[in-house]
Amino acid sequence: MKHWLMAGALLAGTLFVLGAQAQAQEGGNPANPLITDKGRFRPLIVVTPSAQEPAYRHLRQQLDETQAQFEQREMLLYTVEGSEGTRHGQPMTRYETAALLDALDVDPSQGVTTILVGKDGGKKVQQRGGVELQQIYDTIDRMPMRQGGDG
Q: 55 and 84, same structural domain?
């Protein structure tokens, strides 16, 4: 009986390690909310040390003014203000926020950073400081998936 229990525990441990390795190869931490967006949305992630940063406030104003264009391109907004993250206006847990920042290799203390992730899960744009949202929209419009392909 002990041998069966030990064999079962060993098998469970091996499967856990293999699953973790596969997950790391496919995009990392399961708390990373970007995993669920792959193939469905184009996440736009805006990271800032503070909601009062002028570049962040300007981008938020642009988003308000172009909401229809944003939605038409199947985009999804993530914000990280300091250590507080949101996905589509809903608060994320601290684990989700940390996993998102880790996956993107971004630190909020280093200023405003805007990242566009394609439906394929890859980074398409990463820019520090001020961003003109129309340039992001133009980038999306040139993507193969937007034109009926893979991007």
A: yes
